[in-house]
From TrEMBL:
PANTHER family, per the entry: VACUOLAR PROTEIN SORTING VPS16, VACUOLAR PROTEIN SORTING-ASSOCIATED PROTEIN 16 HOMOLOG
Cellular component GO terms held in the UniProt record: CORVET complex; early endosome; HOPS complex; late endosome membrane; lysosomal membrane
Segments forming domain Vps16 C-terminal: 517-835
Molecular function via GO: actin binding
Record protein name field: Vacuolar protein sorting-associated protein 16 homolog
Bilayer topology: Peripheral membrane protein
Family, per entry: Belongs to the VPS16 family.
Coiled-coil annotated residue ranges, if any: 349-376
Domain Vps16 N-terminal span(s) in chain numbering: 4-420
Subunit description: Core component of at least two putative endosomal tethering complexes, the homotypic fusion and vacuole protein sorting (HOPS) complex and the class C core vacuole/endosome tethering (CORVET) complex. Their common core is composed of the class C Vps proteins VPS11, VPS16, VPS18 and VPS33A, which in HOPS further associates with VPS39 and VPS41 and in CORVET with VPS8 and TGFBRAP1. Interacts with RAB5C. Interacts with STX17, MON1B. Associates with adapter protein complex 3 (AP-3) and clathrin:AP-3 complexes.
InterPro entries in alphabetical order: VPS16, Vps16_C, Vps16_C_sf, Vps16_N
Protein purpose: Plays a role in vesicle-mediated protein trafficking to lysosomal compartments including the endocytic membrane transport and autophagic pathways. Believed to act as a core component of the putative HOPS and CORVET endosomal tethering complexes.
Length: 839
């Protein structure tokens, strides 16, 4: 353990800092880092280098080269820079490389050097050029801040949703500030800059002069400034060699350190871990690295070669041409276990486990000491926590073995933390491998989350490793394996050296019916890459027609889309394709396409019936469907025509169509309607009143009500209205007029073809019992009882029923007998029934 702490360096009395090697870099740089623009992404992200920046006149062979490496130095991409002069590089939170040019255009590249998009920072930046730029991160996304040649700042807090803000002007600023940085306070991005001994804070509304509290006197210039990873703290390097550290709000001073070096540092970054009370700043010069904080003495390291600092959540990454190291504060759990002469429970448990492996009785002594103090659960937890913060697998195993050993002597220690730590460390060790090159610490991993880590593995096209992690952690398929396979498939379709059939087959064999995978999304990516046939083959595996059809329409494969929509049975989908086809094809081709698809034709007809009647007529004409064409003209005659001549003409066209369809009944009925319309028009002209659009029956009734009995009879003869129907019409009309004398004459004009019971019913309907009785006596024997009951003559109805010896009629009469009034009649019927049963 004493040897283990050899690289620990104390900063005051409260904290130790250690620096260990992550990777031995094997990237074979031909130039020093100081001759390159450098950008390294946080959370163990990639490194971008632009060689030979700033040369405006150079032969083609000497163009700058943009190279992207993993954190371990493994090349990921290399491309010749053919665009404008570069000012700054930076990585977004999604690990996209933002390249800020001198003209204010920002080019965005993927991890593998693939161009994504570009955007401009505005005309003012274009006119005044870019002097300096910063890429920064906020809770909203990744932002870009620009310092122009006019010494004005332009800022966008989120490049994904570009909204440019021109910051207020700094009064009296005639030259570039000595240093500046971006800060995020209260969800708003600010710019802090130094002009001589003065500091200015720019927000969207105003420029404010600020003064750090407790700053040592004699400062004439600020040479460097740094904001912490979480934007909570600020460090200022002055020309007097002092480093002021305080809150980012500039309201509180934490400490001030005199480094006795007045030369401006190359870089200055914060180095602190979450929940740590100790705050430290790392300052780098050409060959010296210093860690300073609230302590009289700092920690100094010698740099053998040009180095670059990358601030992280819990430390600082330092890489050079040959090595990549990590500098951080020793976590509390590790410090308590490994510091010299530690008697912490975790330290005793680790010693007990080592003695146990040596089969020494000292193991029992250490264990008893922990148990007597009741600190065994704490000891186990310390070992588990310390294992998470160790980089080397051997030390992780040693600590986890100690934790497992201590757990054996506890009855109710929950295993979740131990199991979870084992899983997390297996994942971390896998991604820290040199060939993967993502040196995440345990704290960074927890902050990043497993889903983001999987996304980053997918970005690096490390699909097998991502799938293994998902399966190992037993993540839900939709969140894990399915999502990764979908990304793999989208990458696969970009491999243009493989045939469409082979790619489609490989994707289907790998994906199958994996839940959560959309073949339509993969097909869309293939179409975006210009591989239309591959997209169509992939859509064959998509089970949801609603996902197939829109993409087929986008690919101009409308007829195939129509077939898929019809197969789905979804009428809304078919209508969508039909309307698209209608706009895409000429009228003739559209109709020919419909003729080959009966279901689509039927649906389109339904649509035309409500929306496009003329198109419906054209469809019927093209199909020689005379029956439907005749029906169309009949409907059109009433819907569109108001003049009687136009209506009759439309009906004549309909009649001709019905004759062509060999439907003589419909043709004759149409001709009769034409005759009726002409007659009604004549009646309106001669008699006045309204006759048009009445039926034959209503026309007859209207004539009778108007007293035109002869005309009504003539109309009935012309249209062959049967006598029974005519008598009913005339009887009903005369009753409505209450012309009882005319009804009596009518009843005696000849024998009634409808009998005389209707006369009784009509009179009673009009509440005229007197007239009803006249006709009740004329009703035939079979309806006599019913007629007598209608006029209320129950006694006579009973006599007739008994005379007829009809059980049904007697029952009918009984149902009309009420109380004492008809009691005698009811008894009479009952006696008649009894006699009939005796016989």
């Amino acid at each position: 353990m004493d040897c283990y702490t050899a690289n620990w360096n104390p900063l005051g009395d409260s904290a130790f800092y250690r620096k260990y090697e992550l990777y031995s870099m094997d990237w074979d740089l031909k130039e020093e880092l100081r001759d390159c623009l450098v950008a390294a992404a946080p959370y163990g992200g990639p490194i971008a280098l632009l060689r030979n920046p700033g040369r405006k006149e150079k032969p083609a062979s000497a163009r700058p080269v943009l190279e992207i490496y993993s954190a371990s130095g493994v090349p990921l991409a290399s491309l010749l820079w053919k665009s404008g002069p570069m000012v700054s590089l930076g990585w977004s939170a999604e690990e996209e490389l933002l390249c800020v040019q001198e003209d204010g255009v920002v080019l965005v590249y993927g991890l593998h050097g693939d161009f994504r998009r570009h955007f401009s920072m505005g005309n003012e930046v274009l006119q005044n050029r870019v002097l300096d730029a910063r890429i920064f991160h906020t809770e909203f996304g990744s932002g870009v801040a620009i310092l122009t040649g006019a010494h004005r700042f332009t800022l966008s807090a989120n490049v994904g949703d570009l909204k440019l803000r021109r910051m207020p002007e700094v009064p009296g600023l005639q030259s570039a500030p000595s240093c500046w940085t971006t800060m995020c306070q209260d969800r708003v991005a600010h710019i802090l800059l130094a002009v001589g001994p003065d500091l200015y804070l720019l927000d969207h509304a105003a420029c404010s002069a600020v003064t750090p509290p407790g700053l040592a006197p004699g400062v004439s210039s600020f040479l460097q400034m740094a904001v912490s990873f979480t934007y909570r703290h600020l460090a200022l390097f002055t020309d007097t060699g002092y480093i002021w550290m305080g809150t980012a709000s500039l309201k509180e001073k934490l400490c001030e350190f005199n480094c006795n070096i007045r030369a401006p540092p190359k870089q200055m970054v914060w180095c602190s871990r979450p929940r740590s009370k100790e705050r430290a700043v790392v300052v780098a010069w050409e060959r010296r690295l210093m860690v300073v904080g609230d302590a009289p003495e700092g920690i100094q390291f010698v740099l053998d070669e040009d180095s670059y600092l990358v601030p992280e959540l819990d430390g600082v990454r330092i890489f050079s041409r040959s090595t990549h190291e990590f500098l951080h504060e020793v976590p509390v759990a590790s410090e308590e276990i490994f510091k010299i002469a530690s008697m912490a429970p975790g330290a005793l448990l680790l010693e007990a486990q080592k003695e146990y492996e040596k089969e020494s009785q000292k193991a029992d002594e250490y264990l008893r000491e922990i148990q007597e103090l009741g600190q065994l659960p704490q000891a186990v937890q310390q070992c588990i926590e310390a294992a998470g913060h160790e980089h080397w697998p051997d030390m992780q195993k040693s600590l986890l073995r100690a934790a497992s050993f201590g757990k054996c002597f506890l009855d109710r220690f929950p295993p979740d933390s131990f199991v979870r730590m084992c899983q997390d460390l297996r994942v971390l060790n896998a991604i820290r491998d040199y060939h993967i090159g993502i040196p995440l610490t345990y704290s960074q991993y927890k902050q990043l989350t497993i889903q983001v880590l999987l996304d980053r593995l997918v970005l690096r096209r490390l699909y097998p490793l991502a799938i293994q992690i998902c399966e190992y952690l037993r993540l839900p398929e939709v969140q894990g394996v399915s999502r990764i396979l979908a990304h793999w498939a989208c990458y696969k379709v970009q491999q243009k050296d493989v045939s469409d059939e082979d790619v489609a087959r490989a994707i289907n064999q790998k994906l199958g019916d994996t839940p959560g995978v959309s073949y339509s999304d993969i097909a869309a990516r293939a179409y975006g890459c210009g591989r239309t046939e591959l997209a169509i083959k992939l859509l064959e595996y998509e089970p949801r027609s609603g996902e197939q059809v829109p993409l087929l329409l986008k690919m101009k494969r409308s007829k195939l889309a129509l077939s898929k929509a019809i197969e789905s049975g979804d009428t809304d989908l078919v209508f969508t394709v039909l309307l698209h086809l209608k706009n895409e094809l000429n009228r003739g081709d559209f109709f020919m396409t419909l003729r080959n698809q009966p279901m689509a034709l039927s649906l389109y007809r339904q649509f035309c019936k409500h929306q496009e009647l003329e198109t419906l007529k054209d469809l019927y004409n093209q199909d020689d469907n005379h029956q439907e064409l005749g029906s169309f003209h009949v409907r059109a005659s009433y819907a569109a025509e108001e003049r009687i001549e136009g209506r009759v003409a439309a009906l004549q066209t309909a009649a001709d169509a019905f004759y062509k369809a060999k439907n003589e009944f419909a043709a004759k009925a149409t001709e009769d309607q034409m005759r009726l319309l002409r007659l009604q028009r004549r009646l309106e002209d001669e008699l006045g009143g309204r006759f048009l659009d009445l039926s034959v029956h209503d026309t007859v009734t209207t004539l009778i009500l108007s007293g035109q009995n002869k005309r009504a009879e003539q109309l009935a003869r012309d249209f062959r209205i049967p006598d029974k129907r005519l008598w009913w019409l005339k009887l009903t009309a005369l009753a409505d007029l209450e012309d009882w004398e005319e009804i009596e004459k009518f009843s005696k004009s000849k024998k009634s073809p409808i009998g005389y019971l209707p006369f009784v019913e009509i009179c009673m309907k009009q509440h005229n019992k007197y007239e009803a009785k006249k006709y009740a006596s004329r009703v035939g024997p079979e309806q006599k009882v019913k007629a007598l009951l209608l006029v209320g003559d129950v006694a006579q109805a009973a006599d007739v029923a008994i005379e007829h010896r009809n059980e049904a009629e007697m029952s009918l009469v009984l149902s009309h007998c009420t109380g004492a009034t008809d009691g005698a009649t009811a008894d009479k019927i009952q006696r008649a029934r009894a006699q009939a049963q005796k016989k």
